[in-house]
Design brief:
Blueprint lengths: L10 H19 L12 H6 L9 H7 L10 H14 L3 H27 L3 H16 L4 H5 L4 H22 L3 H17 L6 H11 L6 H5 L2 H17 L1 H5 L3 H20 L19 H19 L6 H13 L7 E2 L2 E2 L11 H13 L6 H24 L3 H11 L4 H13 L3 H14 L3 H13 L3 H14 L4 H13 L3 H14 L4 H11 L1
Antiparallel strand pairs: 1-2
Helix pairs in contact: 1-5, 1-6, 3-4, 4-5, 5-6, 5-8, 5-17, 6-17, 6-18, 8-9, 8-10, 9-12, 10-16, 14-15, 16-17, 19-20, 20-21, 20-22, 21-22, 22-23, 23-24, 24-25, 25-26
């Protein structure tokens, strides 16, 4: 099988492909470079994070000693700091870096597919088409257009790079390629721990080549497994609250549903959303979970039957499932249930592509109609990705789009309501905030109603909403901050000081909270 693994095209051809990918990426995503930040993790990770707005030894040390708050992503934070230093805090620099990383990843995918299926003329063309599909597919738009998804782009770049190094090592066993694989794996772990599955993916490729029975296949991965264990412990420390909300049976059922969902979106990328909430019961009796499991069982049977001809299909399926597996525990967040997230399919897309490429490479004679279908598919994906990138223009556009598909999302109603309040459109804003509370009462929605009341001059109601927010969630810092100011204006100095101190305790990085307390203590 090794003879099927070809080398990359010549340098001139590689240069032309790189330029073409860059130009196509700019054509599709160029307009989205003018998008702003969105109030969905961007506020806490980027523009509202003081450590991002400076590039010093102290800020770099902070990046390597803090979580995000769940994930350990020091290199991602460092990339934010560099963007902020270059762009002066403008979202353009952050969006540009995301786009360049996505183009790089598409090129690496092209390289991986070439190494997987071979290097003859037809296979090289197939590889370029796979890379273009990765570049243009609308499902990847979230990872490109959402600044907070930088960790997915950056970790994928190192993951794909490590795969290129290892597949090249299989073709030409030079020791330095193994060390390069380990280095890229380490950098990937420092970007996002989800790349922890790399050693298992490499074993799958060894199995494809019939190397799994060789002792060397296992011993050469000992450093990778050691790194995985270390960063696995670090990851569990940050994910304790998420893992405590995870139940095994629910995780298995949601994994089946999300897996089939992603396969469906690979083929028909429509009705995409920033969130996919699920509010019904999670039970095997529901067709939402029973049907996906049956479909996966059928597909598994087909894959097993294909083994007497080739291991390519099973290898591709294992790459897809292994890279998707780290997301299976993420279905429960802050009391809400989500069955998918577009960016979780970013790295697993590779499995879908190498499987499709291996299947098409086995077709002895290509007809012109195949080329036409591929061309139409790529153009269609490019148009859809361009449109989807505009959904991320700002928070209001993003969550208004979400409400078109999920009107029962309390998060979307809260975000839209808050944006409308900022625009002084109080009637509609309050409507969305109250709708959010009807679906699920949260401290954030009550806090936003307090802001609306304050802006409308209703200080009594503003105080009431902040007090209700604190009663619902005693650890919600912003409500203490606003309540302290309201109490101070009412002459309740002791209560105001208590609220201000609590705000600083809960929001230690918030400059406004510290300034507010300082003024009150003078």
């Amino acid at each position: 099988m090794m003879e099927r693994i070809g080398a990359l095209p010549g340098r001139q051809c590689a240069f032309l492909v790189t330029c073409a990918f860059l130009l196509i990426g700019i054509a599709v995503y160029g307009k989205s470079l003018g998008n702003g930040f969105v109030a969905f993790d961007d506020d806490t990770l980027v523009y509202g994070n003081p450590a991002v707005h400076e590039l010093t030894s102290e800020s770099i040390a902070w990046a390597f000693s803090h979580y995000d708050p769940e994930l350990y992503i020091p290199l991602t934070f460092l990339s934010y700091q560099i963007d902020d230093a270059i762009g002066g805090g403008s979202p353009f620099a952050f969006h540009l870096t995301n786009l360049l990383l996505h183009v790089l990843n598409a090129l690496l995918v092209t390289w991986i597919v070439t190494l997987f299926i071979g290097g003859d003329r037809k296979c090289r063309l197939l590889s370029v088409c796979c890379g273009l599909l990765f570049l243009l597919h609308p499902l990847n738009t979230e990872a490109v257009s959402w600044i907070s998804a930088r960790k997915d782009l950056l970790s994928s770049a190192f993951f794909f790079g490590a795969l290129v190094a290892y597949l090249s090592y299989q073709h030409r066993p030079v020791r330095r390629l193994l060390w390069l694989t380990a280095l890229l794996f380490l950098l990937g772990l420092l970007s996002k721990v989800s790349v922890i599955i790399l050693p298992f993916v490499l074993l799958v490729f060894d199995w494809r080549e019939g190397r799994l029975s060789e002792r060397k296949s296992w011993t050469e991965k000992i450093p990778l497994f050691a790194l995985g264990v270390i960063f696995g412990v670090v990851a569990v420390t940050g994910k304790e609250s998420v893992l405590s909300d995870t139940h095994l049976l629910e995780a298995v059922l949601m994994a089946g549903k999300s897996t089939v969902f992603y396969l469906q979106k690979f083929l028909v990328p429509s009705d995409l959303s920033v969130i996919y909430p699920y509010t019904a019961a999670i039970t095997l009796r529901s067709s939402d979970f029973f049907v996906p499991i049956v479909l996966l069982a059928v597909m598994g049977g087909v894959l097993i039957r294909s083994l007497h001809r080739t291991r390519d299909a099973v290898c591709a399926a294992m790459v897809f499932l292994l890279t998707l597996a780290p997301s299976f525990s993420n279905y429960a967040k802050a009391g809400d249930i989500y069955f998918a997230s577009d960016r979780y399919a970013y790295m697993p897309f590779l499995g879908f592509l190498i499987g499709s490429a291996a299947l098409l490479a086995g077709i002895s004679a290509w007809r012109r109609s195949v080329g036409i279908i591929v061309f139409v598919a790529l153009v269609t994906c490019g148009v859809l990705a361009h449109r989807q990138s505009q959904v991320w223009h700002d928070s209001f556009t993003l969550f208004s789009h979400t409400l078109n598909s999920y009107d029962d999302s309390h998060i979307a109603h809260n975000k839209v309501g808050a944006e409308l309040i900022d625009r002084k459109e109080f009637t509609e804003g309050v409507f969305h905030l109250r709708r959010s509370l009807e679906i699920r009462p949260t401290a954030r929605a009550l806090y936003n109603l307090g802001i609306a009341a304050l802006l409308m001059g209703e200080k009594g109601e503003a105080r009431m909403f902040n007090e209700q927010a604190i009663a619902l969630d005693p650890e919600y810092g912003p409500a203490y901050l606003n309540l302290s100011a309201l109490l101070w204006e009412d002459g309740e100095r002791a209560g105001a000081l208590r609220a201000a101190r609590k705000a600083v305790d809960l929001l230690p990085q918030d400059a406004e909270a510290r300034r507010n307390l300082t003024l009150m203590e003078q």
